[in-house]
């Protein structure tokens, strides 16, 4: 089943985002493991990944190429609070769809919700 994967180490953020996005009707899976993220993309067909900036002691810049090798059409939205401009340029070059600020509370999620909506609209172009 195609859907949304939240790959984030921060349990509070992961839970908040999963609850909110499930309430909005998305099919959501969550993980705090890079191995589970790769498996979810290969076996469960996640279309959109909401990715934290650090994961299993790997920076997102290291993980994104692996995720893209699993599915070149994968849409990745990176959530982070602070990244240097050179790091952001490198991550964008790897093919992320969007870079959003990590929300501190549910009221701060409008940017990510809009990015996810656009990501699914964009991903549907690859399946039709």
What does this structure look like?
The protein is an alpha/beta fold and 128 residues long. It has a single domain, classed as 3-Layer(aba) Sandwich (Rossmann fold). It has five helices and seven strands. The strands form two sheets. Strands 2-1-3-6-7 form a five-stranded parallel beta sheet, sandwiched between helices. Strands 4-5 form a two-stranded antiparallel ribbon. Helix 2 runs parallel beside helix 3. It is globular, with a radius of gyration of 13 Å. The two termini are 16 Å apart.
Set out the fold topology.
Blueprint (H helix, E strand, L loop, with lengths): L2 E5 L3 H13 L4 E4 L2 H10 L2 E7 L1 E2 L2 E2 H11 L4 E6 L4 H9 L4 E4 L8 H18 L1
Parallel strand pairs: 1-2, 1-3, 3-6, 6-7
Antiparallel strand pairs: 4-5
* Name of the CATH first level: Alpha Beta
Structural class: alpha/beta
Give the number of domains: 1
Taken as a percent bin, the fraction of beta residues is 15-25%
Which geometry do the CA atoms define? globular
Could you give a quick summary of the protein structure above?
This protein is of the alpha/beta class.
What are the salient characteristics of this protein?
128 residues, alpha/beta, globular, 5 helices, 5-stranded parallel β-sheet, Rossmann fold, two-stranded antiparallel sheet
């Amino acid at each position: 089943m195609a859907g949304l994967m939240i790959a984030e180490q921060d349990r509070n953020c992961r839970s908040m985002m999963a609850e909110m996005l499930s309430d909005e009707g998305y099919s959501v899976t969550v993980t705090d493991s890079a191995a589970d993220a790769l498996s979810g993309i290969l076996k469960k067909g996640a279309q959109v990944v909401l990715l934290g900036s650090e994961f299993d002691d790997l920076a997102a810049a290291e993980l994104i190429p692996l995720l893209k090798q699993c599915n070149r059409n994968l849409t990745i939205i990176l959530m982070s609070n602070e990244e240097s401009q050179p790091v952001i340029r490198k991550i964008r070059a790897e093919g992320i769809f969007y870079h959003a600020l990590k929300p501190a509370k549910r009221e701060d999620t409008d940017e990510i919700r809009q990015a996810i909506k656009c990501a699914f609209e964009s991903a549907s172009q690859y399946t039709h």
